[in-house]
Design goal:
By secondary structure, the chain is α/β, with parallel strands linked by helices. It folds into three domains: 140 residues, ATPase, nucleotide binding domain (Nucleotidyltransferase, domain 5, 2-Layer Sandwich), CATH 3.30.420.40; 92 residues; 125 residues, no CATH class. Strand 2 and strand 3 form a beta hairpin. Helix 6 packs antiparallel against helix 8, helix 11 crosses helix 14 and helix 12 packs across helix 14.
C-alpha cells in the first residue's frame, strides 16, 4: 500500500524522469523510471554522448515530455564529481550519494548485482524527492577551485608515505647484513652508504650496493619534491593578501601556538575553507568525532566515535589536540582536560584527547568565522 501511495503521489508530481547510474570502469548501467515504468540499459564507461543519447531515448520510450525535468543520482566513488558537473550543465538535477548511508538487506546471502543496485537507487531517488530525506546522505560537492586546492597537501601526504617506505626498505636491506642505522638519508648519505660494512667487516655485495644506491636515489627525489611542496605552501601563505579567503584562514590559524602551516593548510582546505556549518554539532559530526550510542530495551552502551566524514581531519584533530595540551596549557580546553583526566590511566587520557579534539575543532571554527579567540589561548610572537 505504501508503494502504491508513493506511485500515486509521483504521478501527480508532473513530468519527471528519474535516472540512477551504477558506475564502473567498463560499463555504466543506467536506470530510468517514469510513472511506474522502468527502463535499464548499458552505456560504455565514460561515454557521455552515449549517456546523453540514453536519456533522450528514455524520454521517448517512457513518454516524458520534452519540458519534463530529469532527476538523477549516483554513488560517490572513483569517478569523482566531473559527472555531477556535466549533468548539472545539461540541466539535470543530480545528487551524489554517500554509499555507506544506503540501507541494504541484512540477509546472509543477499542478491548483489548492478541491476539490483540500480533499481534500489531508483526507488530511493523517488522517495528522496518526495520528501523522505532520511533514505540516504547526499554528498556536498566542492567547487572546482576547492577541489583543486586539496591536491597540494594530499600529494604531500602521499610523498611522506613514499619517503617512509624507501627509508624502511633501506634499513631492512641493511639490517639483514647486520648493519643497524638510526638515520637514513641526509646531505652526506651517499658517502656514508659507500663506507658501510657488514657484520664481519667486509664490504657490502655489489648487487646490494647497487640496489641501495637506486633506493637512495628514489628517496632523494621524493625528499626534494616534498621540500618543494612545503616551500610552495609557505610561499602562498606568505604572499597572500589580507582580502580574506582560504589563505587568510590559514594565516589566522597559524597565529595560534601549537598550530603550524601544514596543519592549518589541511584544516582549511579540507574542512573550514569551503564547507558551511550551522552549529558546532555539525562540525563534530562531519569529522566523525561524535559518539555512537547503542540503546535497545535494557541494553545501553557507547560504541565509540562514529569515524564518519573526513578521515584526514579526524586524524589531524586528534594530533593537534595533543599539541594543544602541550603548547596551550593555560587555555580553557587544557584546563578542562586536566580537571577531568588528571590521575587517570593512559586509556582514559586517550579517550579524553578525542573529546578535546572535537571541542577544539568547534572552537577553531568559531575563531575563523566570528573572530572569537579560543579562551585562554596564546598567540605566537610572530605569525608563521
Amino acid at each position: 500500500m505504501a508503494q502504491m501511495a508513493l506511485q500515486s503521489n509521483d504521478s501527480g508530481a508532473g513530468a519527471v524522469l528519474y535516472m540512477a547510474l551504477e558506475l564502473s570502469k567498463a560499463t555504466w548501467k543506467v536506470g530510468f523510471e517514469h510513472q511506474g515504468r522502468r527502463r535499464i540499459q548499458n552505456v560504455p564507461g565514460g561515454d557521455v554522448s552515449g549517456l546523453r543519447g540514453a536519456i533522450e531515448q528514455a524520454r521517448r520510450r517512457l513518454g516524458v515530455p520534452d519540458e519534463g525535468e530529469v532527476r538523477s543520482c549516483y554513488e560517490a566513488g572513483r569517478d569523482g564529481f566531473w559527472l555531477h558537473r556535466l549533468l548539472r550543465d545539461w540541466g539535470v538535477e543530480n545528487a551524489v550519494v554517500d554509499p555507506a548511508s544506503i540501507e541494504v538487506s541484512r540477509r546472509a546471502r543477499r542478491a548483489k548485482t548492478d541491476r539490483v543496485d540500480v533499481v534500489s537507487l531508483l526507488s530511493k531517488l523517488r522517495q528522496y524527492h518526495l520528501g523522505e530525506r532520511g533514505v540516504w546522505k547526499v554528498v556536498r560537492v566542492p567547487t572546482e577551485a576547492a577541489e583543486d586546492a586539496r591536491l597540494l597537501h594530499r600529494e604531500r601526504e602521499r610523498l611522506k608515505k613514499e619517503c617512509t617506505g624507501h627509508i624502511l626498505r633501506i634499513k631492512g636491506l641493511l639490517f639483514a647484513q647486520g648493519v643497524r642505522l638510526e638515520q637514513v638519508g641526509g646531505p652526506h648519505w651517499v658517502e656514508r652508504l659507500e663506507g658501510l660494512r657488514r657484520y664481519d667487516g667486509r664490504a657490502l655485495a655489489a648487487d646490494l650496493q647497487a640496489q641501495l644506491a637506486r633506493e637512495s636515489a628514489r628517496l632523494a627525489l621524493v625528499e626534494a619534491q616534498l621540500k618543494a611542496l612545503e616551500a610552495e605552501q609557505a610561499r602562498r601563505v606568505r604572499e597572500a593578501g589580507e582580502t580574506g579567503g582560504a589563505m587568510a584562514m590559514v594565516r589566522a590559524l597559524c597565529q595560534l601556538k601549537g598550530i603550524g602551516t601544514v596543519t592549518a593548510w589541511v584544516l582549511v582546505m579540507e574542512f573550514f575553507g569551503w564547507r558551511r556549518f550551522k552549529n558546532g554539532k555539525e562540525v563534530g559530526a562531519l569529522a566523525g568525532l561524535t559518539g555512537t550510542p547503542y540503546a535497545s530495551g535494557q541494553m545501553q552502551r557507547e560504541q565509540g566515535i562514529s569515524k564518519a566524514g573526513n578521515r584526514r581531519v579526524r586524524a589531524l584533530a586528534v594530533e593537534i589536540a595533543w599539541l594543544w595540551l602541550r603548547y596551550q596549557p593555560d587555555s580553557a580546553l587544557s584546563r578542562w582536560f586536566a580537571e577531568r583526566f588528571a590521575g587517570t590511566g593512559k586509556r582514559h587520557k586517550r579517550v579524553g584527547v578525542v573529546a578535546v579534539a572535537r571541542k577544539l575543532l568547534v572552537t577553531l571554527w568559531r575563531y575563523l568565522h566570528t573572530g572569537e579567540r579560543p579562551a585562554g589561548a596564546r598567540l605566537k610572537a610572530s605569525p608563521a
